[in-house]
Write a structure and sequence with these properties.
By secondary structure, the chain is of the alpha+beta class. Helix content is about 40%, strand content about 15%. It contains 14 helices and 13 strands. The strands form four sheets. It has a four-stranded antiparallel beta sheet, with helices on one face. Strands 7-13-12-11 form a four-stranded antiparallel beta sheet. A hairpin with a 3-residue loop joins strand 8 and strand 9. The chain starts with 13 loop residues before the first helix and ends in a 7-residue tail after the last helix. The N terminus and C terminus are likely disordered.
Length: about 475
């Protein structure tokens, strides 16, 4: 076999050169595949349209094999570490999304669907000191391949994704979720992510761990200040010219602590309640987290230069979402007595409207009534209405002042009846409601009226005897 000879080389090196040349395509393929996995693990590169088109074109030019039939999708093994330090293995595709892998891990861990919103997949960072939440658009297998720490058997972890400790109480009956909460709380205290200053309290917690009282342990841990919080590695900030800061996200707000460039705390702390924070956003160009806050009536901006700026914004959004959950839960937990009282008061208010309308004086009826109905109308008008007594008295006094007074003559019973029947209804007299106005009666058709009845109608002054 003739080998490739270079100037100044010996002929004896031809055989090894041929062996390397024959193995080079396989070595090149392994190196390139590893390089593509490492490059595409970055979201900005792997989801870029140019890169996706390039990968699709490479798959399109690959000739299909007719003898092999339909090509089966290649699956790979992925390991995930649970909060109780157990490892589960699942078979997924290399391009499986984070949501698919999360559901597969929860199924292997036997986590209920009610508890799934309180957990998520994380990537271990900073030599096992910090955990970054894997976004739903990322591919966990790429993270599993590129970031494989020596301390653990995997870089993908299932951990608690919750900022409100009271929400754990809704999963009292879920033994798997309570077990995960217990082991993660114990790990956070051991690694001093949650600090305990009182030594007696630490000893009491240790006794609960030895006794296996998980619920009592969690009940005591929930009272700690920074339980269910996330503290980020120290980074630079535009509010400080020299030194760094440590940012902690809690349910109540955002805490900024001063430290030097090596992460040594300096004892300065500033708390920004969520009521003070107006807006929060990420700056992709400068790779920073920016938020605007209001203090003493003035609005200011703060920029935090952290490599985990996307995770910072995601934590802030999570706290706001949990605050809405809390508000909705409180509304549902309110007793419905107030609603029933308000509903019962509506008919009472509606029933009071007709009463108010009836108390208003009706318009005066100044039209004269028919002759056949005068006696009936006069009898009803003679009864004064209780709501218009003052108006009648005032009108009677005005009439007596306008006309000269005359001496009253004695009136008999017949004359009083005739005068009341002939007096027309005026505005000074109590008016009758419009709806109570009697309809005129039709005269009966008689051929020859009796003389007694005719005499009574023509002579109203007669006593009727």
């Amino acid at each position: 076999m003739a080998g490739v000879s270079f100037p100044g080389s010996n002929a004896t090196s031809a055989a090894p050169t041929c062996v390397v040349a024959s193995l080079w395509p396989y070595v090149q393929q392994c190196v390139l595949s590893h390089m593509w996995l490492a490059v595409c693990s970055y979201r900005a590169i792997g989801e870029d349209e140019v890169m996706m088109d390039f990968l699709k074109q490479g798959a399109a030019h690959k000739p299909p094999s007719k003898a092999a039939g339909p090509v089966a999708k290649k699956t790979v093994e992925l390991r995930a570490i649970l909060p109780d330090t157990r490892a589960v293995s699942i078979d997924v595709e290399q391009s499986s999304s984070c949501a698919f892998v999360f559901e597969a891990v929860c199924a292997r861990a036997k986590l209920s669907t009610d508890a799934m919103p309180y957990f998520a997949l994380f990537e271990v960072m900073e030599e096992g000191k910090f955990y970054r939440k894997i976004r739903r658009s990322e591919f966990p297998h790429r993270i599993y391949v590129t970031n494989h720490p020596a301390q653990t058997s995997s870089a993908v972890f299932l951990r608690r994704w919750l900022f409100t400790p009271a929400k754990e109480l809704s999963l009292k009956q879920d033994e798997v979720a309570i077990n995960f909460f217990f082991h993660q709380a114990k790990e956070d205290i051991t690694k001093k992510r949650v600090s305990i200053e009182d030594s007696s309290q630490r000893q009491a917690l240790q006794k609960l761990v030895e006794a296996g009282e998980k619920e009592q342990y969690l009940k005591a841990v929930r009272k700690l200040d920074r339980y269910c919080g996330v503290s980020f590695p120290h980074c630079a900030c535009d509010a400080r010219k020299t030194g760094h800061i440590v940012v902690t996200i809690l349910k109540k707000g955002l805490i900024v602590e001063a430290c030097d460039e090596e992460g040594v705390m300096q004892g300065q702390e500033t708390v920004f309640d969520w009521s003070m924070v107006k807006t929060a956003q990420e700056d992709i160009e400068e790779e920073s987290f920016v938020f605007k806050y209001e203090r003493n009536g003035k609005e200011k901006w703060m920029r935090i230069y952290s490599q985990y700026y996307e995770y910072l914004l995601e934590c802030v959004e999570k706290t706001q979402a949990e605050q809405q959950w809390t508000d909705e839960t409180e509304k549902e937990a309110r007793p419905p007595k107030k609603k029933a009282a308000a509903a019962s008061s509506k008919p009472a208010a509606a029933s009071s409207k007709p009463a108010a309308a009836s108390s208003m004086p009706a318009p005066a009826n100044n039209k004269p009534e028919p002759a056949s109905n005068k006696p009936a109308v006069a009898e009803k008008a003679a009864e004064p209405a209780p709501s218009s007594t003052t108006s009648t008295e005032n009108s009677a006094e005005a009439a007596t002042d306008a006309k000269p007074r005359r001496k009253k003559k004695p009136v008999t019973n017949g004359e009083a009846a005739s005068e009341s029947s002939e007096a027309p209804a005026t505005a000074s007299e109590p008016a009758l409601p419009i709806e109570n106005k009697p309809k005129p009666k039709k005269k009966p058709k008689v051929k020859a009226p009796e003389p007694v009845k005719v005499a009574v109608e023509e002579n109203p002054d007669d006593d009727g005897l």
